[in-house]
Design brief:
globular, three-stranded antiparallel beta sheet, mainly beta
Length: about 80
């Protein structure tokens, strides 16, 4: 499979595609049942967090535009 891609959708979820696993804060892997693409919630309204359930459609607005981060700080 090709490298993993994260797509930041305008007014919506983060779509993840490729070969990936998602792990919770206790190190337990979510059972994704073979999925190679899904949406992650970024509006905070999903009742199925961390996964998107479409709740953003009524009240979440954020137009995603790519930009360059500043250089990493070195000590």
């Amino acid at each position: 499979m090709s490298k993993t891609k994260l797509i930041i959708n305008s007014n919506g979820s983060i779509k993840i595609e490729g070969d990936f696993e998602i792990i919770d804060c206790d190190g337990i892997v979510y059972g994704l049942e073979g999925r190679t693409a899904l949406g992650l919630c970024r509006c905070g309204l999903s009742s199925n967090k961390p996964f998107c359930d479409g709740s953003h459609r009524s009240s979440f607005e954020h137009e995603s535009k790519a930009f360059d981060l500043p250089p990493m700080k070195t000590k």
